[in-house]
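Feature request disguised as a bug: please show the residue count (400) next to Calnexin in the output. Example input:
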Amino acid sequence: MFGPDKCGSTNKVHFIIKHKNPKTGEYVEHHLKFPPSVPSDKLSHVYTAILKPSNEVVILVDGEEKKKGNILSADDFEPSLIPDKTIADPDDKKPEDWDEREKIPDPNAVKPEDWDEDAPMEIEDEEAEKPEGWLDDEPEEIDDPDASKPEDWDDDEDGEWEAPKIDNPKCEAAPGCGEWKKPMKSNPAYKGKWHAPLIENPSYKGIWKPQQIPNPAYFELEKPDFEPVAAIGIEIWTMQDGILFDNILITSDEKEAASYRETAWKPKFEVEKEKQKAEEEAAATPDVLSGIQKKVFDLLYKIADIPFLEAYKLKIFDVIEMGEKQPNLTIGILVSVVVVFLSIFYRIIFGGKKPAAKVTTATTNAAAAATSDNQGTSEEKEDEKEDAAAPRRRNVRRDT
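Example output, currently without the count:
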């Protein structure tokens, strides 16, 4: 098994090999110790495992060496590919009289007669006296005199309001406030529970270990005998989408792999990196732009509330709401509103009963693309009665 694994606390590029023990015929998994970690971004990455004739293993991430080891080394693989020569005898049992205690309580020790196990660790300091100026009648904390009950506080729902507490300012200049109590001090008579002192165990035999016997699974090997690769499978467990695999290459030519990495992965990686950089730079812009757009739309709402524009409020609201839904069309929306205002002023100055200007037909191409069904062309034919109708309540109104 070879490849990235990032799940929970696991973060590593696996390299696991299966090898058949020539003595037992059993297949054993050998895991690379201390494998490299997986890149934390969402860019495409290429993972390379190089297995050399010298039994050396090299792990590359994006063409950069991250780990090197030797298949036959117990320091690099766990369990070791070559088993230990000896193992603990599974049939060997510790004798019942085996004593592993290095030290034992002195069986001849006796607790002293004056040893009081019930004496407390601390007692009151009888010699202590209350400091002069101690304010017995002053509490350490008082209600904040500057605090007031909030206007929206509901006693039925929020309960009885209580002012927050602050430190009593009178206590700052005094040695203390409230009821004075004698402080505690260490009890000189305290000794705790009595235990017999430890002495060397005359029966100590050391820590017992089973005897070692020759390992029946042991073998010597200079070069592992791996079976040939017959197929490639992808094992994946994930809770997110957008994970893709491609360009899997098995070759005996290291230079071919490096060339393929540069041509199949590197160009895509560079494009993704530039795109990510552009997105990160653009991510900061909307915060500033959205604040400006909000002010613009708030101003337009106030303008639409002017009394002599009452008959056209419905159409102005429609244009503003279209801009709120698609902020990138703000400039086109502004042009549309200007056209509406000019049309209204024209009617006020020259009179007549011309229909109100169609908002969407006077916008730029960007504003016209704001709605897919391009509704409203029939509105150009609405009569004056429809134009003068009372405006409906807007569906979208930003309160913030």
